[in-house]
TrEMBL record, chain B:
Main location: cytoplasm
Active site, per annotation: C87 (nucleophile), H196, E198
Annotated organism of origin: Streptomyces spinoverrucosus
One of the GO biological process terms: 'de novo' IMP biosynthetic process
E.C. designation(s): 6.3.5.3, 3.5.1.2
Subcellular location: Cytoplasm
Protein name: Phosphoribosylformylglycinamidine synthase subunit PurQ
Gene Ontology cellular-component terms listed: cytoplasm
Pathway recorded for this protein: Purine metabolism; IMP biosynthesis via de novo pathway; 5-amino-1-(5-phospho-D-ribosyl)imidazole from N(2)-formyl-N(1)-(5-phospho-D-ribosyl)glycinamide: step 1/2
Quaternary state and interactors: Part of the FGAM synthase complex composed of 1 PurL, 1 PurQ and 2 PurS subunits.
NCBIfam families documented for this protein: FGAM_synth_I, PRK03619.1
One Pfam family per UniProt: GATase_5
InterPro entries reported for this sequence: Class_I_gatase-like (IPR029062), PRibForGlyAmidine_synth_PurQ (IPR010075)
């Protein structure tokens, strides 16, 4: 079994008030020197069978049509090695 | 025979009964549609009502957009079926790409519920013909994800083509770009807005005015005269 990770982020030009709220809380927690925070979503897909080109193409379609709204969000798809130790 | 107007209930819809009631008060016949329906029961128009379909998981409207009922709805809306999306319904229409742009969380991060002043910018849609352009109305607004966004080119196009249908007046309640409260598609048969006209059809409740009623009488007249 393999894991495919889809990361979804608001496009850079879209205002992210959640990220701003997190950023503004940082000095209160003693974290200085962080000028900006943007918050996104991470999807971990456990794939049955091999993660070949066909599977990745389908996952790309899934991300583009459903997991992300490409009007406001960008996404990346990457395959993650699942090691025995991590299981 | 009067017009039959469908109201879709998704898991998490809240305002389906109020919407059916508003349709009845306007003189049309409401028809309950279920999210799993694969046909639209030959209705003459559809309202996608407010609420939190599928808990607003992923994005507001994102999961509802793939419900079985949406397949015939998208197909028929593209062919001219009048569709009004209110609040969550507006979010579903943008997710289905029947309307351009997208809805995001309010810029102040809070749920908001207030009587909202709007200006009707266009009376040239299936749901606004009983208004006059420039008319100021009061409609209840209640939402978490009401911030309308689109890229500058899309916004310019909407303005140039007269497709901004409603604008927030005096106060922008959610950070919507260019104070946009509602828009329409190119043909004017699909309209979406965040405020809730179905809550303003009787003087006893809502804003104490009946500024929401013309949404429903507009579509009734259009269908009956067709």
């Amino acid at each position: 079994m393999a894991r495919v990770v889809v990361d979804v982020m608001l496009k850079p030009e879209i205002l992210d008030p959640q990220g701003q709220a997190v950023q503004r809380a940082l000095p209160r927690l003693g974290f200085d020197g962080i000028s900006d925070v943007r918050q996104g979503k991470r999807f971990e897909l456990e794939v049955d069978g091999p993660v070949d080109e066909a599977a990745l193409t389908r996952i790309h379609e899934l991300a583009e049509s459903f997991l992300a709204n490409t009007v406001i969000e960008d996404f990346t798809v990457k395959v993650e090695e699942v090691t025995e130790a991590a299981k | 025979m009067t017009a039959r107007i469908g109201v879709v209930t998704f898991p998490g819809s809240l305002d389906d009964r109020d919407t059916q009631r508003a349709i009845r008060i306007a003189g049309a016949e409401p028809v309950a549609l279920w999210h799993k329906d694969k046909d639209l029961k030959q209705v003459d128009a559809v309202v996608l009502c407010g609420g939190f379909s599928y808990g607003d998981y992923l994005r507001a409207g994102a999961i509802a957009r793939f419900s079985p009922v949406m397949e015939p709805l998208i197909e028929q809306a593209k062919a001219g079926l009048p569709v009004l999306g209110i609040c969550n319904g507006f979010q579903i229409l943008t997710e289905a790409h029947l309307l351009p742009g997208a809805m995001l969380g309010n810029d102040h991060l809070h749920f908001i519920c207030r009587d909202q002043k709007l200006r009707v910018e266009s009376a040239n849609t299936a749901f606004t013909s009983d208004f006059v352009a420039g008319q100021e109305i009061h409609i209840p607004l209640k939402n978490m994800d009401g911030r309308y966004v689109a890229d500058a080119r899309t916004l310019d196009m909407l303005e140039a083509e007269g497709r901004v249908v409603f604008r927030y007046l005096d106060f922008n309640p959610n950070g919507s770009l260019r104070d946009i409260a509602g828009i329409t598609n190119e043909a004017g048969n699909v309209v979406g807005l965040m405020p809730h006209p179905e809550h303003a059809v009787e003087p006893l409740i809502g804003t104490g005015r009946t500024d929401g009623l013309p949404f429903f009488t507009s579509i009734l007249k259009k269908l009956v005269n067709a």
